[in-house]
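Case study.
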Amino acid sequence: MSAPPPRITAVDTYDIRFPTSRELDGSDAMNPDPDYSAAYVVLRTDAADGLEGHGFVFTIGRGNDVQVAAINALRPHLVGRPVDQLCTDPASLNRDLIGDSQLRWLGPEKGVMHMAIGAVVNAVWDLSAKREGKPLWKLLADADPQWLVSQVDFRYIADVLSPERALELLSKGKQGAAEREKTLLERGYPGYTTSPGWLGYSDEKLTRLAKQAVADGFTQIKLKVGADLEDDIRRLRAARAAVGPGIRVAIDANQRWNVDEAIAWTNALGECDPYWIEEPTSPDDILGHAAIREGVAPVKVATGEHVQNRIVFKQLLQAGAIDVLQIDAARVGGVNENLAILLLAAHFGVPVCPHAGGVGLCELVQHLSMFDFVALSGTTENRVIEFVDHLHEHFLTPVVISRGHYTAPTTPGFSAQMFPESIAEFSYPDGTFWVADLTDLTAQKAETA
Amino acid sequence: MSAPPPRITAVDTYDIRFPTSRELDGSDAMNPDPDYSAAYVVLRTDAADGLEGHGFVFTIGRGNDVQVAAINALRPHLVGRPVDQLCTDPASLNRDLIGDSQLRWLGPEKGVMHMAIGAVVNAVWDLSAKREGKPLWKLLADADPQWLVSQVDFRYIADVLSPERALELLSKGKQGAAEREKTLLERGYPGYTTSPGWLGYSDEKLTRLAKQAVADGFTQIKLKVGADLEDDIRRLRAARAAVGPGIRVAIDANQRWNVDEAIAWTNALGECDPYWIEEPTSPDDILGHAAIREGVAPVKVATGEHVQNRIVFKQLLQAGAIDVLQIDAARVGGVNENLAILLLAAHFGVPVCPHAGGVGLCELVQHLSMFDFVALSGTTENRVIEFVDHLHEHFLTPVVISRGHYTAPTTPGFSAQMFPESIAEFSYPDGTFWVADLTDLTAQKAETA
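After joint prediction, the assembly is written out as follows.
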């Protein structure tokens, strides 16, 4: 008697938090003190080889427990499900999760519940790529265009992108794919770095890190702006002086402004030739972005890391509201929805420059851009993946940056897996780091008393 | 020594679920089997009179626990806060909750986390109105326009609605307010009923309930559509035949369609003269609604119960995408954000016809429409509040419908308070109803085995 086909046996979740707020790493005009965190999920199976799928939502601290609760709410859809069905048709799970009408009420397709779906769907793609023995980018790039189309949910976007058009784009993407894969493996995918530009850094640190970025081979850096205009002018001048005229300097307001303010402030920074203004206002304001784009040209408008789903991306493109589309691997409903978004971008000819940083976002999103290069848009022109040099040490297969480029991963999977030791140390509030931290705090309080 | 000023001492939350799916009450094209539920919150105080504030998020079953977890995440912002400050300036809390940058990452201002904020903010308004000894609608109608303006967050809407324009609208709303209050107290506020039109009902039941609605004094009913076109045509004919030509029959697709489909399907139902098509597609699709409105005129387009915040409402109005704006009392960030939305609607001259039904949504939202009539838009023309006759018996001060009108509440507060007995019976999974239900299920399984 042969063994029964493997199934999902457990969905384990972890509330992992890193105390990043103590260093002002990641500080910006809206997020002064983030504690970079992950609501982390492991799909366990009874496959003989111990196959597991890993995924997560990135958060910045408080509320990570709510995000974990949302992932837990998906457990009944997963446990007992055959691994083979999940791996050969992740869309079947995606449909069931998006289509759970009771859970759908909590969105629909946005916020905490949708990000939980994204984490689980991404974990399934990790499982699938591991089983296939390929890094995710290659699994996607090798896939049959028809099958990729079957992985996309066209609901609410079909008025702009039909399955037929998607197939056409993906079939065209196959032409020259082998050549581009070779190029990718040789050169990697261009990145840019935000490391110099956090608001909490001194001008001296900014200048030093900006110079370092150029020395490291990056051709674009990014600065956080939006807290104080005089400071921004000074910091942007310092950055421009540090990198010279040939390097792109993007700026990022993290949604700080109203529409009129965004236009005035961005134009006030014009002398230093910013390349794009990122998140000038609410990610929900499609018409606002269109007005801003008109008001700040030739500075480009970029957004996406907080855009909730394909429906809002569709409209940003329809309205001509953005020059640069910034996907995030862990905000929308996972790889399936990001396929839809990459197809929309390709359809409109708008370059995709992913948001990354946080916890593990670089690790994930590189796969999507690399697939896009090899088998969809077919180009890296005006395309860069954000890079921030934080917290990679907690991942089994961290990103490798070389001469300003992301090196293509070759390990099977979605690069989502953290070391068990990291999980044990930074689980909140019971991990060894947080327990020791609480002990310190208690001791300090006792001393002060 | 006088007693210290009262503070919030505890934030108690309850996962309350009613087994409504067993009767197909509330069934529609997207939600075949809702279990109407409330993530319910009570703000306890140490005020001498035992003052409490009650609020909730309405959900339809699974995931209600996630919603409760989100409310719990707000507890640190509430416990210890002075009641006086909360009551005289609910916006101060609203700002702190919306502005918690770590929690904001989970939205921003949308989905589970935002609805949790709405529940808590609404509970504060309940507290405030009780302390003032007024029903909420009257507290708002009596309020100084300057103060009301101070309760609105203009971030991301200031490009369309300035504080000055809001003040102008509210000051104009004061003219004749006393007269309108008298009218309101005499006649109530017009309602319409969805009770006949649930998808799960037979044609016979539909016809009977539609006739009953007219006999009860309603001048508008609503039917769920979107599952099957032939069925919809038959049901709409039956409804039209039952009510005659003088009664408005609205239809509601609960987001079932893509844009093109919405236009074609609505036009196919044109022979029965539907008054509005509600939720024809995704609530996120502003440009889609604009296209649908153009494609189905003269049938009106209505949406809002799932619109996540004031920013999306702003754009629906800017884009001329809707004829009817449907606020929901428990989807956005509470009374403060609904004030912003009512002001936007008044600014654009678009009538507000609230979504209600569910658990306690009628109880809450009547206050907002009544305030709007008395002291903002100043009219009930083409304005009706949805009414569904479900679950009102669990509330201390349930809505009173008379000749198709909502009777203005006179009890102090926001009408949000449920009976302790109802909470005890329907708390999930430990309430007496659910424990007994589980016992039955176990017994049935044992019999079958």
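Observations recorded in class. The two ends of chain B are 70 Å apart (CA to CA). Chain B touches chain A through 60 residues (CB under 8 Å). We will return to this complex in the next lecture.
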